[in-house]
Automatic annotation (TrEMBL), chain A:
<dbReference type="Pfam" id="PF13459">
    <property type="entry name" value="Fer4_15"/>
</dbReference>
<feature type="domain" description="4Fe-4S ferredoxin-type">
    <location>
        <begin position="1"/>
        <end position="29"/>
    </location>
</feature>
<keyword id="KW-0479">Metal-binding</keyword>
<keyword id="KW-0408">Iron</keyword>
<comment type="function">
    <text>Ferredoxins are iron-sulfur proteins that transfer electrons in a wide variety of metabolic reactions.</text>
</comment>
<keyword id="KW-0411">Iron-sulfur</keyword>
<keyword id="KW-0003">3Fe-4S</keyword>
<keyword id="KW-0249">Electron transport</keyword>
<dbReference type="InterPro" id="IPR017896">
    <property type="entry name" value="4Fe4S_Fe-S-bd"/>
</dbReference>
<keyword id="KW-0813">Transport</keyword>
<dbReference type="InterPro" id="IPR001080">
    <property type="entry name" value="3Fe4S_ferredoxin"/>
</dbReference>
<dbReference type="InterPro" id="IPR051269">
    <property type="entry name" value="Fe-S_cluster_ET"/>
</dbReference>
<protein>
    <recommendedName>
        <fullName>Ferredoxin</fullName>
    </recommendedName>
</protein>
Length: 66, 399
């Protein structure tokens, strides 16, 4: 799994951090997503997929076959 | 578990139901019916990036074509649902097609509310769809003066974006300050100051009576007080009406939305999600209908879980954000008009702060003003209120 985030789309809602805090964080100054782990371990796959689906700005893209 | 699912409405909520079902491993047949013909798109950017011209229409698409394809769903787009048979769980479309499934999800969203006397006037625009936004953008480039009617979230965002693109813009509405209902008086006053500082003309406590025109062209609006506000372009942003007209006569309870129980069920095998759904919030002990982006996906997830037999109550901490004139506002919970507002972090004068709304010493909402992460970290203080032990639910919530 490979994750990419679109910082320009990100609205700073932080939903991804609530769901997958080991993979996503927010920058202190503007709240934009920061990716802690672009290729997370398998035990994170479910929460990463959920984060991508829930993101209110559709800013997270998960590539499954990478 | 139902062998097939029909989702009516192909925007954020409808698509999220489909995604959620598949993510949970559902292998049954899914049909997604949508009134608009293009790919599902996101609405928050419409009044911001699309209206400003910084994004093209395609950038608003919620998912890439390959991602949609992987959902193995039958997409029926460009077809409007016109009736629902609740017992048979079949939906008839405008072209006469009949679609049915063992579980049906209603996610038809909102129609823009129109003021009597203004609708049908050329030069008065609303913003709900992607097409609306693209059209409004073109008009904005042509117009010299714009009047926005409506001081809610959408009206304030449109005025802000129009101003950022160099427009002479006036924002009118019945409240003392823009978004007073969503932000409370204190913070709404800050928002008013922000708009004024950027040159937006505000006309608070103002109702628009009619549009004035000359030789078929709009010249402005006349307020209830008799003032004429000159404008070549008028935008009406006076709220939305749940798109339930097509459900009249279905037997479903319709009261400012599709009335659902705490599990987002409107009837046996019929669910609702997103802007159109009124649900019983167990922790708050009352019915709610939320018009915000995260509600669309969160409620969709609950609906998907319940379709698959999880029996999950929907008890969200409501959340929305808005971006206006360089300020990013995040609101968790529901600010009340009587709440006391404390600055919990940051500094109002520096334009970065977190405000906490309290009723009788109990936090009911948290607002971030250019402090998204800090606001989110305080969301936790709201959990006792929004996720506490269930209040009894009225037996009439679901039919």
């Amino acid at each position: 799994m490979k994750i990419t985030v679109d910082e320009e789309k990100c609205c700073g809602a932080g939903q991804c951090v609530l769901i997958a805090p080991e993979v996503f964080d927010q920058r202190d100054d503007d709240g934009i997503v920061s990716l802690l782990d672009a290729t997370p371990p398998a035990d994170q796959y479910d929460v990463v997929r959920e984060s991508a689906s829930v993101c209110p700005a559709a800013a997270i893209v998960v590539s499954e076959d990478a | 578990m139902p062998s097939d699912v029909l989702v009516v409405g192909a925007s954020a909520a409808g698509l999220a139901v489909v995604e959620s079902l598949r993510r949970k491993g559902y292998r049954g047949r899914i049909t997604l019916l949508g009134e608009e013909s293009g790919a599902p798109y996101d609405r928050p950017p419409l009044s911001k990036q699309v209206l400003a011209g910084s994004w093209d229409a395609e950038r608003t698409h919620l998912r890439a074509p390959a991602v949609l394809e992987a959902l193995e769903t039958r997409f029926v787009f460009g077809e409007r649902a016109v009736s629902l048979d609740v017992a048979a769980r079949t939906v008839r479309t405008a072209s006469g097609r009949e679609l049915g499934a063992q579980a049906v999800v209603l996610a038809t969203g909102l129609h823009p509310r129109r003021l009597p006397g203004l609708s049908g006037t050329g030069g008065v625009y609303v913003l709900r769809t992607l097409d609306d936004a693209v059209r409004l953008r073109e008009e904005l480039l042509r117009a010299e003066q714009t009047v926005v009617i409506g001081d809610g979230v959408l009206g304030a965002e449109i005025a802000a974006t129009a101003r950022e693109t160099g427009q002479d813009v006036t924002l009118t509405g019945p409240q003392a300050a823009p978004m007073e209902m969503q932000l409370g008086a204190d913070i709404a006053e800050r928002l008013a100051a922000l708009h004024i500082g950027h040159g937006v003309r505000l006309r608070p406590h103002t109702l628009v009576q009619e549009v004035t025109s000359s030789q078929g062209r709009i010249t402005g609006v006349r307020t209830a007080g008799g003032e004429i506000l000159p404008a070549g372009l008028v935008v009406e942003a006076v709220g939305g009406v749940p798109a339930t007209d097509w459900l009249a006569g279905s037997g479903l309870a319709l009261e400012d939305g599709v009335v659902c129980d705490s599990h987002c069920r409107a009837a046996e095998g019929v669910y609702a999600a997103g802007d159109v759904a009124r649900f019983h919030h167990q922790a708050l002990g009352r019915s709610l209908r939320l018009e915000n982006r995260t509600n669309a996906t969160e409620q969709a997830q609950t609906v998907a879980a319940n379709i698959l037999g999880e029996s999950r109550a929907y008890t969200p901490v409501p959340y929305f954000w808005t971006d206006q004139l360089g300020v990013r506002i995040q609101v968790y919970g529901l600010p009340t008009p009587t709440a006391t507002v404390h600055i919990a972090e940051g500094d109002v004068q520096e334009g970065r702060f977190v405000a906490r709304y309290e009723e009788a010493g109990r936090p009911v909402a948290v607002l971030g003003w250019n402090m998204p992460k800090h606001a989110r970290l305080q969301r936790q203080s709201l959990l006792p209120l929004y996720t506490s032990a269930p209040h009894p639910e009225p037996a009439t919530a679901m039919r």
